[in-house]
Amino acid sequence: MNARDDAELGDALEPGAPDTWIKAANSADLEIPRPVIPVTLFGQRLVLFRDDEGELGLIGRHCPHRGADLCFGRREDHGLRCPFHGWHFDRNGQCVEQPAEPADSTMYKTIKLPSYPVVEKDGAILTYMGKGEPPRDIVVPAQPAASATR
Ligand code: FES
Questions:
Q1: What is the C-alpha separation between 5 and 64, in angstroms, rounded?
Q2: Which of 4, 73, 94, 97 has most Cβ atoms within 10 angstroms of its Cβ?
Q3: What's the CATH number where 50 sits?
Q4: What's the gap in Å between 16 CA and the centre of ligand 1?
Q5: Domain annotation covers residue 63
Q6: pLDDT tens digit string along 62-95?
Q7: Domain enclosing residue 98, as ranges
Q8: 136 in a structural domain
Q9: CA distances (Å), 148 to each of 23, 25, 38, 42, 52, in order?
Q10: What is the pLDDT of residues 101-148, one digit of tens each?
Q11: Is the CB–ligand 1 distance for residue 78 below 6 Å?
Q12: Residue 47 scores a pLDDT above 50
């Protein structure tokens, strides 16, 4: 098994993520031919995408296999397929397929990228990175999250 654990490839969530919905991007940022963009929020490098059904996903940016950048992943079947060896991740960051593994392997079930809920409202794409369940009231902040970068 070549999978690395999240601690090696993932970025720790910096303190300060509020218990509110925060702006990850503008809807217009994904109005591009291939709607897959890098987003860094509170120290976590993530990939924001609109899948082949038009649904949004916000998952860890680097493949837990060999660290390939999923911003170059292929949009298919409700998620992204890693461009390097083809591991496939759904909108929730769950690995759902490892093409080079034996057909009866279930290892993929143990592999999951960080992921955050995403909603779209009033031209903004919002995510929740706080503790517990996100608030039901979704208020669009005027500004992007303080630590949001690409
Ligand atoms: S780096 Fe090998 S499947 Fe992603």
A1: 7
A2: 73
A3: 2.102.10.10
A4: 31
A5: yes
A6: 999 999 999 999 999 999 999 999 999 999 999 9
A7: 6-128
A8: no
A9: 8, 9, 10, 7, 25
A10: 999 999 999 999 999 999 999 999 999 999 999 999 988 887 665 555
A11: no
A12: yes
